Xaa-Arg dipeptidase (Pteropus vampyrus), 433 residues
Amino acid sequence: MRPGEERPVEGGACDGVSELELLKLRAAERIDEAAERLGALSRAIWSKPELAYQEHHAHGVLTRFFECEPPAASWTVRPHYQLATAFRAEWEPPGVPAVPRPLHLGFLCEYDALPDIGHACGHNLIAEVGAAAALGVKGALEGLRGPPPPVKVTVLGTPAEEDGGGKIDLIEAGAFKNLDVVFMAHPSQENAAYLPDVAEHDMTVKYHGKASHAAAYPWEGVNALDAAVLAYSNLSVLRQQMKPTWRVHGIIKNGGVKPNIIPSYSELIYYFRAPSMRELAVLTKKAEDCFKAAALATGCTVEIKGGAHDYYNVLPNKCLWKAYIENGEKLGIEFISEDAVLNGSSGSTDFGNVSFVVPGIHPYFYIGSEALNHTEQYTEAAGSQEAQFYTLRTAKALAMTALDVIFKPELLEGIREDFKLKLQEEEFLNRAE
């Protein structure tokens, strides 16, 4: 095969449509055929929201979905994979030629919810997109009349995105080893092949003082609430020296038990975000100094504890962007401009950590509502019938992009080169030497 030449697809073209485009049509048809089952899957997850690492209902719904996916036993399903609420479902086309290692594509599902407001980030739709895109690829490859390409399709159920970082747990357990490209999509207010999700670090800060009667002898006490208030104020003053792309947000979780008792204990929880891990380290060092200064000023002792995992910034992969946009536009998806992408607001996700170990794409998609994520209105939108059209259209675009990866060797080469260059920019390759 000459460089830049597409992998041949058996079956022939018709009416000027290439073999690959016919496969993409078959992938979209397969998703449409499964639309009712996919919608039921999403609604089952949405109707019973579960917090991070507690998604037992969603885990059961998803594993049963793949176990029962026709034809019978076509997916090899491993429930409770590495984590109690994670799973792994794998499929390979029968009759694959023997090769040392097939091309291995991964589709990721999220399904945890938020406290009190349920699926206000639409993770039920993320699960549906991942499942639907995988079914689309499988359906297209099953339609091949010639020998299938050496490829494996894996669906990973990744719990605890909102709190804890389930994907990071799975990375550490080796779940992403040997995957070549990974795909997922996240609901939003617009369609974007990429948004600059930023690095994030959590901190819990605990001040310990000394209780005393607040009226009779306050001088005997050491006020832990004063330390918390000073820490909050220190960070507020620091904001003038923060870069516009840095974000700091926190709460005072515990500030005492009764007004006439000098608080002997206080607790704050803070999130820190920056465009890169390098900048995040600078920001968190400044914050730690603010917390320590408050302890020194009040005479309290302080405990500063980081979260279990830092979320890395998401590495962009322009080759995957372009392929996804090209396929999405054929389906009628209207994407925001690249300027809007680079200047838009964003959050954080444990997919960022995945993007440092395997090339991948994490696009955002409109679901028919102007409501903002993490609101009660978005919870309602994520469970609506209207969201189904947009969700399945996004799954089709992902499946079509995955078929490009399978049948266009030059695209896979470009994806890998983009991945390598971005890692070098982040200095991770140098850091590892």
